[in-house]
Design brief:
The chain has about 425 residues and is an alpha+beta fold. The protein has eleven helices and five strands; from the N terminus they run αααααααααβαββαββ. The longest helix is centred in the middle third of the chain and has 103 residues.
Amino acid sequence: MTDLAGVEQRWAAYFRWGPYGLLAAGTLLSLASVDAVGMSTAERYTAVVLVGAAVVLQLAWGWWSRDRPLAPSVPGCCYYFARAALGFALSWCNPFFAFYAAAGFVGPDRLVRGRALQLGLLCTAVTIAGSQAGGMPLHGPLNWAVFGGLLCVHISLIVVFGRLAAREEERTRIQTGTIAELERTNAALQQALDENAALHAQLLVQAREAGVADERRRLAAEIHDTIAQGLTGIIAQLQVVANAPDLATARTHLERASDLARHSLGEARRSVHNLAPVALADAGLPEALKKTVAEWGERTGVRAEFTVTGTTEQLHEEVAATLLRIVQEALSNISRHAAASRVGVTLSFLGDEVILDIRDDGSGFDPLAVPARTGTGGFGLPGMRARAERIAGSLTVESEPGHGTAVSARVPLVRHD
């Protein structure tokens, strides 16, 4: 659109100053050829008056068109034919004034349309052909024959270039429409991208809020399943100690109560550790996962390996926290139920998504037989799947009794703000 505006500005500049230049060229050549052409005194004075009229006409046109768009109009048509008439009259006085008349061939469609345009081009062709044939008036059959031949050539050129101009105008119109459609499409696309960015930000906020609620439910469930049960067991053992018939029996139940207390303390520490992703506070996700897997392997005695593939990206904090939670929950499930001897965790950066794989060679299970999550049950696989889905991801589980388990989470790669 900027190029089209520049073209229109150049056309406007030509119509303002171009005819002055052509008139000056014709005037200078006519002055130099006064004697050679044989201009009479009357023709000389007439030419002076006509040149002055041409200048006045051009000044009037420049004043009228100064603040108006260049397009066919009644004033434009009057200007065009007045200029053509002056060009014809000047060329009658001296053939070299045909330079000024030739202005009628340049951009006439920007001043006149339809039959008026064809008539104007014909008038210009007559003026130019007459000047090229030796000047007007024509004398003798030879001059008329040359004039007729030249006029046919000019008319043929007008027809050919007119058709080319029509095709070019149609092509320009199509291009202009295409550019306008592309601009509308780009604007709609940009609006869609802006809306998508806003929706994505809203999704992450909702995921964070939902994650807080899920953490509360998970912590409540773990307290119920582990710590509360451990405290109940401790109370039961202490009640037996209070009624023990001898010291040996009391010591035995005290040791059991002590073991339960240690186990409950470990569970409480694990729950607090999992409550917030502190591992992400000072490191990126790959470093946090590597540390988490290594510490888990040392604590459980299971061989655990962590691998990163692809080009590492700094992920959005909600995405990183979600993947870390999934790994922590998966490792917790493995230590509780799988009896595995080897665990592998792989973090893969693949273009526009991140894939997290956790594999073990444990006892495995039937995924279809996993009980539904309850209000008092553990977090487990449903919770891991819910975490992934909250950030527009997915989680799949492949397992078979006696053949280990593979958990895979796919989430969008959202970079850190």
